[in-house]
Write a structure and sequence with these properties.
Strand 5 and strand 6 form a beta hairpin. It contains nine helices and six strands. The relative contact order is 0.14. Helices cover about 50% and strands about 20% of the residues. The protein has two domains: about 120 residues, Rossmann fold; about 30 residues, no CATH class. By secondary structure, the protein is of the alpha/beta class.
Length: about 160
């Protein structure tokens, strides 16, 4: 495992490989999930809260220079900083015009792995559409209350 921002974009081990961009905190919260994802893949750790938000250009450069076969993002659910890793990978793919295979996963409550569609990552950037979905399906707030301390304490 290496830190994303400390990785040379032309490193030989990145060429034509499968890359996992993972939340750095996952190494402490649930190392088993990270271990499962790292089989036959290169794991690059990132923490936008700690490192800032310079990841997009790094991922785009890796895509252009090393032509990986796929990128998988795995982060903690509910963290606004972790969410940005999903958005950043989507942005890097868009900016490069690449058709690289990608998958997105979140770890719910530190335990449960859940795959997230590329469209869900894209949709999360459009809050007015999320708001429309919430108006159509208000029952989702009950689920949010189970997950979010902020939601539990509101109202």
């Amino acid at each position: 495992m290496d830190w994303l921002l400390n990785t040379w974009v032309k490193a030989p081990y990145l060429k034509n490989t499968n890359i996992v961009v993972a939340s750095a905190c996952l190494t402490k919260v649930n190392p088993g999930i990270l271990e499962e994802f790292s089989k036959n893949k290169v794991v690059l750790l990132a923490c936008p809260e700690q490192e800032g938000f310079a990841h997009c250009s790094k991922i785009a450069a890796i895509i252009r220079c090393s032509c990986p076969r796929s990128i998988t993002v795995v982060t903690m659910e509910g963290s606004p900083h972790c969410y940005t890793l999903h958005a950043i990978v989507s942005e890097a793919v868009f900016l490069t015009g690449s058709n690289i295979k990608r998958k997105h996963f979140v770890v719910v409550n530190g335990l449960t792995l859940k795959e997230i569609s590329v469209e869900a990552v894209r949709l999360a950037r459009y809050l007015h559409l999320v708001d429309e979905l919430l108006k159509t399906h208000p029952e989702v707030l009950k689920e949010l209350k189970k997950l979010s301390l902020e939601q539990k304490l509101s109202k």
